[in-house]
Design goal:
It holds the Pfam family Fer2. Keywords: 2Fe-2S, Iron, Iron-sulfur, Metal-binding, Oxidoreductase. This is 2fe-2S iron-sulfur cluster binding domain protein. The structure is a single chain. The protein has about 150 residues and is α+β, with helices and mostly antiparallel strands. It folds into two domains: about 80 residues, Beta-grasp domain (Ubiquitin-like (UB roll), Roll); about 60 residues, DNA polymerase, domain 1 (Orthogonal Bundle), CATH 1.10.150. The chain is built from five helices and five strands; from the N terminus they run E-E-H-E-E-E-H-H-H-H. Helix 2 crosses helix 5 and helix 3 runs parallel beside helix 5. The radius of gyration is 15 Å and the shape is globular. It starts with a strand and ends with a helix.
């Protein structure tokens, strides 16, 4: 097995681990760091269930090698609530009933968070376009879009 020692920050905490050079960041987050909020959906970067923020940018971790994370700043859904309080995006998802089975929710939360932190204002159509990389099989998207609107439209 060909491994490499890597270091990065995840949710504000410094982490060092041995990663197989073929291991995805998704596998490292779930199997080595026990961060189970990041979900494995399609495994090919199409569904968005595994979305995290790396240096503020949305990344599908199922197709991103763990070794590429060396030296980076990673945020997962577990890092969004602070001091027991949900983030604005998490609260909006809850308020708008945008969660059913919850499998896709972490990816949507991270994608909407990246949009909110961009400082831009988004129309409903722009929100739909920006979220097109995240799939949901339960909600029909309307509640998710309403939650995003609540956070993104000022």
């Amino acid at each position: 097995m060909n491994t490499k020692k890597i270091s990065f920050r995840v949710n504000g905490q410094a982490v060092t681990l041995e990663a197989d050079v073929r291991e995805s960041l998704l596998e490292a987050l779930r199997n080595k760091l026990n961060l189970m909020g990041t979900k494995k959906g399609c495994g090919v970067g199409e569904c968005g269930a595994c979305t995290v923020l790396i240096n503020g940018e949305t990344i599908d971790t199922c197709i991103y090698l763990a070794v590429w994370a060396d030296g980076k700043e990673i945020r997962t859904v577990e890092g969004e609530a602070k001091e027991g309080r949900l983030s604005k995006v998490q609260q909006a998802m809850l308020d708008e009933g945008a969660v059913q089975c919850g499998f896709c929710t972490p990816g949507f939360v991270m994608s909407i968070t990246a949009m909110a932190e961009s400082g831009q204002t988004f129309t409903t159509e722009e929100i739909k376009k920006e979220l097109s990389g995240n799939m949901c099989r339960c909600t029909g998207y309307q509640n998710i879009v309403r939650a995003a609107e609540k956070v993104l439209q000022k």
